[in-house]
Amino acid sequence: MTEKLKILDKAFYNRKNVVQVARDLLGKILITQLDGYRSSGRIVETEAYAGVEDRASHAFGSKRTARSEHLYGDPGTIYIYICYGMHHLFNVITNKKNIPHGVLIRALEPMEGVEHMLKRTGRLTSDFTITKGPGNLSRAMGMTKLQSGGNVFSEEIFIADDGLRYKKNEIIVTKRIGVEGAREDADLPYRFIVKGNPYVSAKKS
DNA sequence: GAGTAGATCCTCT
DNA sequence: GAGGATCTACTCA
């Protein structure tokens, strides 16, 4: 599965429209080389977080804290934080430095290194849940907050393009998940999923 | 199958 | 001291 991989450059992330970047990330390949193992997967679900104007974002209202500091980094910066005490959520920063836009990667379709994902997650067999949901995919790829503050142009973690493009009718736009507390912004159509992909996280229980 | 609670800990108030 | 960009397992129907 190692076709011609082109690593996405800074210009890809350095765009004003974080929603557009989130959409463009669908079909790209996230590769990690951590613990000496290489794992990769195709991105099939993303969410955009539009910075200071977005109630669901940690940077809403220009809030700037030690935790959200990485949100304000250069385009391509990695922002990982722990949610509910046990889940690591993986974000890529977009737009210019000091503009806290980010894209949350919510689901991957595993490609390489599935056996290492299984080992990391303590599973015996691979199924559709191994990289479904932001908490699961971070664990499967071996990403922790140790990687937060790095960038997606490094040896350890990077995102590449193998030329695959989803057509417009293969992508579904919905509102985001798990951000009910964001009030009216919870209804924004900032979530992108690949139609019919079994690794996409479930709608809502 | 749907709904609910518990796990678990870092961060901000 | 409360709560969170979640996930899983268990209950009940």
Helix content: 10-25%
Distance between the termini: 34 Å
How much of the sequence lies in strands comes to 25-35%
Radius of gyration: 16 Å
Order of helices and strands: EHHEEEEEHHEEE
Number of helices: 4
The general outline is: globular
Instruction: Please describe the biggest sheet, giving its number of strands, its sense, and whether it closes into a barrel.
Output: 9 strands, antiparallel
Oligomer: single chain
Let me know the number of strands: 9
Low-confidence runs (pLDDT<50, min 5 residues)?
A: none
Mean pLDDT metric: 93
* Overall SS class: alpha+beta
Structural commentary:
With about 200 residues, the chain is α+β, with helices and mostly antiparallel strands. About 15% of the residues lie in helices and about 30% in strands. Strands 1, 2, 3, 4, 5, 6, 7, 8 and 9 form a nine-stranded antiparallel β-sheet that branches. Strand 5 and strand 6 form a beta hairpin. Helix 3 packs across helix 4. The relative contact order is 0.24.
How do you describe this structure in short?
The protein is built from 4 helices and 9 strands. It is 14% helix and 30% strand.
Keywords:
single chain, 205 residues, alpha+beta, 4 helices, DNA-binding
Break the fold down into its secondary structure elements and pairings.
Layout: E1 6-7, H1 10-13, H2 18-25, E2 29-34, E3 37-50, E4 78-83, E5 87-94, E6 101-112, H3 114-121, H4 134-141, E7 157-161, E8 171-174, E9 191-194
Helix pairs in contact: 3-4
The structure holds a DNA duplex (13 and 13 nucleotides).
